[in-house]
Amino acid sequence: MYTPFFIEETGPDGIARITLTRVDVHNAFNDALISELTSALKGMEEDPRVRMVILAARGRSFSAGADLNWMKEMAGYKESENLKDARGLAELMRTLNELSKPTMALVQGAAFGGGVGLVACCDIALASEEASFCLSEVRLGLIPAVISPYVIAAMGQRAARRYFLTAERFPAQEAYRLGLVHELVPAEDLETRGKRLAQVILAGGPAAQRESKDLIFAVSGKAIDETLIEDTAVRIARLRKSPEGREGVNAFLEKRKPDWAQD
């Protein structure tokens, strides 16, 4: 059976890697890729061996967004069938965005439409200096609907008001300036930098990282009132008395690595 991506075996370091492999269509989405990628991510969420997930791609493009042949097929669907497909893509984006484990995108080439959504849903995004980005939907008479919450959170409303409307292709340098990606790396160094940063991530406590991601979602956009202040106090108090919290503090005081970071 044709597989739209491959998953490297999770190693002893706990890094799971998904690489998109629909190179002939620039790693574009179709219903099979969306369904299988969502299932793979949910499996990694439940797999205790997985500490973090890296999302990468082969070929010239990271992802061209929706497969045009698939879109042509969907044009003949009823509205209810189109809604089902849209919900499938929305579930993929939500699953990636809400994964409790750290996620990293390695963007080696062009990311269009939903490909930009994948980048925005990852916690960390590294891009080759040769990468480019485009929210191209309006040129097809469409809108970047299900990816919009994540893209706007990543690059801001002001930038979205330009690039959603113009569908301009913009370079990696602009994506970096806007905050869509965190670092620009020479193309030949992208994998090496990704591996180095992954090791930095793995030095953190896994439970603390899960709690940190949940904290970000809980705090972002909220008014700083008594309810929020109390919630943050409860969170840190709970972590301080947790086994991981106690181990982390003791390891620091004893000048040793904590148990989750042992070689």
From TrEMBL:
GO terms for biological process: isoprenoid catabolic process. Transmembrane segments: none annotated. The keyword Magnesium does not apply. InterPro entries: ClpP/crotonase-like_dom_sf, Enoyl-CoA_hydra/iso, Enoyl-CoA_hydra_C, Enoyl-CoA_Hydratase/Isomerase. Pfam families: ECH_1. Keywords: Isomerase. The keyword Isomerase applies. It comes from the Bacteria. GO terms for molecular function: isomerase activity. Belongs to the enoyl-CoA hydratase/isomerase family. This is Enoyl-CoA hydratase/isomerase family protein. It comes from Denitrobaculum tricleocarpae. The lineage of its organism: Bacteria, Pseudomonadati, Pseudomonadota, Alphaproteobacteria, Rhodospirillales.
